[in-house]
Amino acid sequence: MGKKNIRRILVTGSEGQIGSELVTELRDRFGAGNVVASDLRTPDVTGDAAAGPFERVDVTDREGFGKVLQRYEIDTIVHMAAILSAKGERDPGLAWNVNVTGLLNALELARDFDLAQVLCPSSIAVFGAGCPRENTPQETVLIPSTMYGITKVAGELLCDYYVRRFGVDARGLRYPGIVSAETLPGGGTTDYAVEMYYAAVEGKAYRCFVREDTRLPMMYMPDCIKGTIDLMEADFDGLVHHGNFNLGAMSFSAGELAASIRTGVPGFEVIYDPDYRQEIAESWPTSIDDSAARQEWGWEPSYDLRSMTKDMLEKLTARHAEGNLYREQPA
Ligand code: NAD
Ligand code: AKB
Predict the structure, then answer these.
(1) Is 148 marked active-site?
(2) What is the location of CATH 3.90.25 in the chain?
(3) What pLDDT is attached to residue 328?
(4) Of residues 72, 148, 197, 272, which has the active-site annotation?
(5) Which residue's alpha carbon is nearest to atom 1 within ligand 2?
(6) CB neighbours of residue 142 within 10 Å
(7) What distance in angstroms lies between residue 266's CA and the mean position of ligand 1's atoms?
(8) Which residue in 16, 77, 141, 289 has its CB near the most CB atoms, within 10 A?
């Protein structure tokens, strides 16, 4: 397991917040023609996705998914297709179908085609009632409150089962909330962290859907991409865990984020107006113990809140000046 060179990669959910930036980085490393982007949604042909192949793949359709693997002689699936927490609460059945059936299809296809690797992210959403919220350990009770969290626990268990039972090299990381400047987030509880930067750069007040004192673990996109690729490349034999690595970087409250943004945009105003996502946020950790990832494959983040804010404001301000701030995902 994990012995073959990674040569031909299919990224599912490639039009999403993480997939869109991961495809660019994977193409830089492995060659544009070796990284096939795929999603339900068709990309903007003038964007980065045009730099390599794209196929429309619905991950819940195993046959169609398999045909693309065959056509491109794929040996690695990076499985980013998912329905996130807030959207998942609006349609729990869809979240189960995409997140669990979609992953099961990826794992079964990995057996059928003897793939070298399947990587599927998990989330801090696996945690819930009964787990310590501060410095949440790798091993703890997993009783999530959302359908999204339930699907992520199921996904971790499926990955570990396929490793043990069928010898599939399946790997996964529990990302915290991801902050990024390229593609807007796709319907999660941590979306406020990204939205706050956009509002500030536009000179608008931001209506924040969690309370000022809501503290969550977060990570800047360059660290998310680095961690994902580092785990893909880690020696399988050195891994004790497989589908569920805690991954930490920074932790801040909504109020601390607003204060950080004010260092670059003085006078930026935030109105706190919590909705149903407050309860979801409160069920998640405030910080994460990621020592297993550090020990087993050398995880180490680079960005903290200050350096992330500096970079986010520089990037978004430059785009705003060009009249190209929003690269919005369709609903
Ligand atoms: P996103 O919502 O931005 O993108 C998901 C993509 O999946 C979308 O482009 C969507 O069109 C696609 N998709 C939905 N249903 C599909 C289907 N049936 N077939 C194919 N594609 C489909 O999500 P993201 O933020 O890029 O997340 C990627 C992964 O990382 C997910 O597993 C998510 O749970 C995980 N994660 C993300 C965050 C975060 O803050 N972004 C945090 C923790 C975990
Ligand atoms: C969400 O808020 O749903 C995601 C996540 C932390 O999994 N960003």
Answers:
(1) yes
(2) 178-218+250-285+304-321
(3) 55
(4) 148
(5) 188
(6) 18
(7) 33
(8) 77
**Does residue 155 surpass a pLDDT of 50?**
yes
Residues of the chain with CATH 3.40.50.720: 9-176+220-246
Q: Quickly name the fold that domain 9-176+220-246 has.
A: Rossmann fold (3.40.50)
Q: Kindly report, residue by residue over 283-320, the tens digit of the pLDDT.
A: 999 999 999 999 999 999 999 999 999 999 999 999 99
pLDDT for the residue 330: 47
**Segment 179-197 mean pLDDT:** 97
Q: Given ligand 2 and candidates 122, 142, 190, 194, which is best to mutate, with the most ligand atoms within 8 Å of its CB?
A: 190
* Residue range 13-32, pLDDT digits in tens: 999 999 999 999 999 999 99
Ligand nearest to the CA of 86: 2
- Of residues 50 and 162, the one with the higher pLDDT is 162
Residue 270 has pLDDT above 80, yes or no: yes
CA of 329 to the centre of ligand 2 (A): 16
Pocket of ligand 2 (CB under 6 A): 84-85, 123-125, 148, 177, 188-190
Q: Which CATH class is domain 178-218+250-285+304-321?
A: alpha beta
pLDDT digits (tens, 9 = 90+) for 72-111: 999 999 999 999 999 999 999 999 999 999 999 999 999 9
- The finding on whether 13 has its CB within 6 A of some atom of ligand 1 is yes
Q: Is pLDDT at 182 greater than 50 in this prediction?
A: yes
Average pLDDT for the chain: 95
